[in-house]
Each structure stands twice: as C-alpha cells, then as structure tokens.
Amino acid sequence: MTVTSETQxxxxxxxxxxxxxxxxxxxALDVFNPATGQVISRTPLARPDEVDAAVxxxxxxxxxxxxxxxxxxxxxLFRYRDLLVKHSDEIARIASREHGKxxxxxxxxxxxxxxxxxxxxxxxxxxxGECLEDVAAGIDTRSIRQPLGVCLGVTPFNFxxxxxxxxxxxxxxxxxxxxxxxxxxxxxxxxRLVELLHDTGIPEGVLxxxxxxAAQVEQLIDHPDVRVISIVGSSEAAAAxxxxxxxxxxxVQALGGAKNHLVVMPDADLDMAxxxxxxxxxxxxxxxxxxxxxxxxxxxxxxxxxxxIRARAAALRLGPGDDEATEMGPLxxxxxxxxxxxxxxxxxxxxxxxxxxxxxxxxxxxxxLGPTLLDEVKPGSRVSRDEIFGPVLSVIRPKxxxxxxxxxxxxxxxxxxxxxxxxxxxxxxxxxxxxxxMVGVNVGVPxxxxxxxxxxxxxxxxxxxxxxxxxxVRFYTESKVITSRV
Length: 486
Ligand code: NAD
Fold this sequence. Notes:
- The protein has 16 helices and 22 strands.
- The protein is globular.
- Strands 14-15-16-13-12-18-19 form a seven-stranded mixed sheet, sandwiched between helices.
- The chain is of the alpha/beta class.
C-alpha cells in the first residue's frame, strides 16, 4: 500500500507537545478524494523516534493534567463542544471530501460525536466514587476513580470524525493524556478535530497525533509508557491489537467488524421497513459498522419486499458527497470498491440471484459501485457471512422466526441486529434471544448513543468494557478503595 506518489498533495503533519511538525518519514500513503480518484493528501508512516516523542509528550503532560480539577477539565470540553458546533459545516466537508460520504451524513455522525463531548462534560459527576461509613466500628471505606496515564486511540476510516470523538474527549476528561493514531485513509478529519481542541487552550502534550499504519500501532502498543489501548477497525485488526495488548498486560477495548442482519416479519409495515433497509444498507455506501448487510425476509414477505427494495435502490442518486442531490457517494478507495464488487460474482458462484447489479457504475471517475441486491443467498455462503463493507445487500428467506434467529445467531459477528414487526411477542423473543449487542426494533440502524455503551458482541468486540457511556468512564479510569479509621 505504500505509494511513492508523484503528487504535490501535502503530507499531513504530526502533533506533538502542542506543535504541528512535519514528519521526517521516507514513506507515505496516498489519501484520495474518492469521488474523483485524485490524491488530496499523504499520510506519513511516522518514524520510530517520532512515535516515541509523541508518547514522551503525553507522559510528560500526565502528572499536571491529572491534577487539573475535573470541573476545570470539563470546561475545556465545554469550549471544545462550542467550537465543534461552530465549525460543523467545515468539519463535515473535510470528512466528506476524504471519505466520500454525503455532507449531510457526515454532519449526522459529527453530531453523534459532539454528544460524546457533551457527555464527557459531566465528568465531575461521572467520576464520583462511593462511600460506606462504619464498615467496621469507626472505620469508613470509600472508592475513587483515578486516571491511568497515557492512552492510545486507533481509528478506522469509515467514521473519520465520530470515532476519534468516542475516544479522546472521555479519556482526557478522566485525567489521562492521549496519543491518537488516525486512520491512514482519512487523516485530515482528525487533524481538524485536534486543531479545534488546541484552540481551547488545552495544555500541550495532553493530546498528540502520530500518523501511520499497523507498524506504528504495534510500536505504540509495545511502548512501556502506553497503559490503555482503544481500537476500532476490522475484526482482524481488532483481534490482533487485543492479543498483542493483552499479552503485554495493557487495558484494551477492541471494536471489530460486523455482519448485521435485518429480519423482516410478514406483519411488518413494509413502507417503513423498506425505507429503513435502504438507509441501513446503502447509507454511507454500506461502509458503516451498523450497516444492514443481510435481509432475512421471513415467510410470505419475500417477493414483495425484494421488489420494493430493488425499485427504491435502483432510484438512488449517486454522486460526489458535496452535491446536495447525492444520496449515495463512492467507496473510500479503489481496493475497497473492487473488493466489494468481487462479492457480486462470488454470490452468483454460490447460487445467489443478482436482482440489481451496481457494476454498471464502475466506469465513472472515482471509486463508485452502484447499489446491489442479491436474492436467494444461501445460508452459510461467504456472501452471507463475510463483511463486504460496500453497497451489496443479500436477501435470505427463512421460513419463520425460529429459522431467522438461527441464521442471525450463526454469524461469527454480533455488532447489530434488527427486527421489523408489529407482533409484540416476536419482538420480545428477538430482543431476548438474538446474539448481538446493538438491537433495533423497527429502526434500520440502532445507532450508538454517547450516554450508552457501544455494545458489540462475539467477533465484533474483544475486551470487557465497551466504548462511551458509563463503560467508557470505567474503561479510562482505575478504581481505588480506601479504608480509614479517623
Ligand atoms: P482497518 O482494520 O483496516 O484499520 C483500522 C485501524 O487499525 C487503522 O487505524 C489501521 O491503521 C489500524 N490497523 C490495521 N491493521 C492493524 C494491525 N494489524 N495492527 C494494528 N493496527 C492495525 O479498518 P478500516 O478499513 O479503517 O475500517 C473499517 C472496519 O472497521 C470495518 O470492519 C468496520 O466494521 C469496522 N468498524 C467497527 C466499528 C465498531 O464499532 N465495531 C465502528 C466502525 C468501523
């Protein structure tokens, strides 16, 4: 993937001790505008000494940052929240330009990220411990929560703004310092987020940015001064990071990939279900960890549902993310696009029927693939199991809810699962028995909310404490129990 590009596109700087500095790295990766295919910036693969300098800066900032009183730490975040709101159009445009998603979609996910900052502003209450007097005669016990030290955040390309905001605002609110390793495919969104945090006047070294790919992450995990690791990425990367970090005794949360099923019962409101499925499967061009990837059309609902999805998907307007008329943008790069398209032939080999073929869009400039619909996909086939991460939706036809639950629960992943139905009994049973952490009832995307944990299961999550919500506060703090006779 390393490209020695002919381009004049700027190489993205590192951010260490409050200063933006060019990397001296020899190698850099191209970052594209996926709507045109043009190179718009380059991600340096930071040198080992640059990685060490970022950790050293975070380590040096920790002793004084942890002593900044929590209400004062929260005040930086109140200011940060206002700056994010003020610059939301600009941030969404940067994300759209390097990711390809529509500006409206980018703004929506920025809002989800801003809500994490708002949640983190409540840190004086969230970090409170507990106290019990007279655990024995004249002896009281209290628990407190303390920051851990230097935290590392490793982020994926598909939410260039929201996922960095899941991590560093809460970690900093808890009194930790941070090294962010943004996705090499969308680095400029993170850079803008960090510039705005800088503008709050936050002390130098509290947050640092290192660019790179797996090798830089591995060096960071191995670094003795890095205590805590959060990664969001493919299941392969999440599993590798989890194993490496755990073997070194680090605290780690590793959020992985997905293969989300949308179960449609025969009694579902099909107008509502169709629209929700379209948004879930083709929104952000299928590049969401909560994207619907398999529709389980139960019993008699199949033929009508497939026809409705086909008709609506065929009418989706493709185009660049900054065109207001666009409903679906390109994929992030050529490799992702070609990989997603390859699943169409694979589906046919495995016995599926192509109802809508997005490959008619491959001739456009940029990395476009049109909405694709595969029917009669075979349970257990690769198309039904692999995360495609593109606009390729599979339909399976279970005969009843029992069979649908069996199909959903056979997935090695367990990020999200959705049911469309008006039957309270079916809904209750689905919620109880489905093996997924984020469950939707008559909603296409059970979106993560800042004040709840993002609760992936099975191969979609490795660790104990999830991101955001109260889990996030517990993840970024250590508890201490003090017993006193006074
Ligand atoms: P990716 O796994 O290629 O990269 C994610 C990050 O991990 C990047 O910063 C990358 O540099 C780093 N990385 C990659 N391989 C690594 C390795 N072996 N060791 C250490 N670091 C490594 O993922 P991507 O293509 O950028 O993002 C899409 C994936 O992320 C999809 O699988 C999607 O489902 C998943 N995702 C999951 C969630 C969730 O909440 N579970 C949210 C968003 C995205």
